[in-house]
Amino acid sequence: MTPLEVVAVTSRSFSCHPVLRNEMLEAFPNARFNDQGLSLSGDALIEFLLGCEFAVTALETIDSALLGCLPDLRCIAKIGIGTDMIDLAAMDRHGVTLLVSPGTNANAVAELTVMLMLACLRRLPEAMEIVERGEWSQPKGRELRGRVVGIVGYGNVGKAVERLISAFGATSLVFDPLVVPEAHVSLEDLLAESDIVTLHVALSEATHHLINAGHLDLMGQNAILINTSRGGVVDEVALSQALRGERIAYAALDVLEDERSSRAGLPRDRGLLITPHIGGSTEEAILAMGRAAIKSLAAHSGCQRSPADVEY
Predict the structure, then answer these.
(1) Are 221 and 192 in contact (CB under 8 A)?
(2) 226 — phi, psi (to 5°)?
(3) Contacts of 254 (CB under 8 A, 6+ apart)
(4) Which residues in 199-214 are b (16+ Cβ under 10 Å) and which e?
(5) DSSP 205-220
(6) Which residues are designated catalytic?
(7) What pLDDT is stored for residue 304 in this prediction?
C-alpha cells in the first residue's frame, strides 16, 4: 500500500457503522469517514474527497466539474446500484473506474415494496388517521391474495418482489424496457390488467417519466402504484392529478424526483403514501452493501489487507 492509497467514505450509513468502519480500516488504514453525517455536495464534497484515490459514495452527485478537481481519484465504489447521480461519460473521460455490486439490497427493497402494497390495500394511512382523530371505525381494505401485480423492471429487485408476492397467492405480469422475453407483456397491457403496479427500473433518458398521464389513465380506479426505484420514473404532477381525480386508488412512493425538498411538488393528496427513500435502509442491506464496496475496492487496488476471512 502506498501512502496515497486513501479511501474517503461519503456514505453516512457506512461511516457510522462500527463493523464496516473496522473492516474498511483493516483493508485501508488511511480511510476517512463522514463522521459529521453531512449530506455532501459541491465544494464540501470536493474538499472531503481531495487527495483520495478511492471513494465510497451513496447518493452524492459525481459530475465532470467535481472530477476535474480531484486529480488523484481513480476509483469509486457505489453503495447501491443506482447510477443516475453519476456522469458515467465524465468518469470515463477522467479515467475513474466505477464499481457497483448488484443485488446487495434487493431483498430489503423488495420487502419494503410488499409492505407498501399491503399498507395501501389495507388503507393503513386512513386507519391511522382515524385513530389520531380519536375515532374508532374500520376502513374496509383488500387482500394481496388473488391480486395481479405488474412488475416493471425485472432485475434483482423485480425478481425478489415476484418471489415474495407469490407466497401471498398473488400473480404477476412482467414488463422490462431492456429485456423482452416471450413471457413478458407490453407496458400498456400490464398497466391495464394489474391491480398493483410496482416500478423497479433504473433512471435514464429512456425511463424518465416512464409512467406519465397517459399511462396512469390506463390503470383502473382501484389500482395502486408503488415506486421504490427512482423518483424521476414517475411524472409526479400527473400522479397528483390522477389521485385527486380518483382515477387510481393509491400510490406509495419511497423516492421523489427532488428529494432535497420533502414532498416536493406533491401536496397531501388523498391516497398518497410517502417514505423517505428507505428501501435499502436495513441493518442487513447496509452491511452487505458496505462489505461489497470494501471487497471490490480491495480487489481493484490489489490490497493485501482485505479481510478475506469475512463472509461477504
Answers:
(1) no
(2) -120, 130
(3) 112, 116, 227, 228, 274, 275, 276, 277, 278, 279
(4) bbbbbeeebeebbeee
(5) TTTTT-B-HHHHHHS-
(6) 230, 259, 277
(7) 52
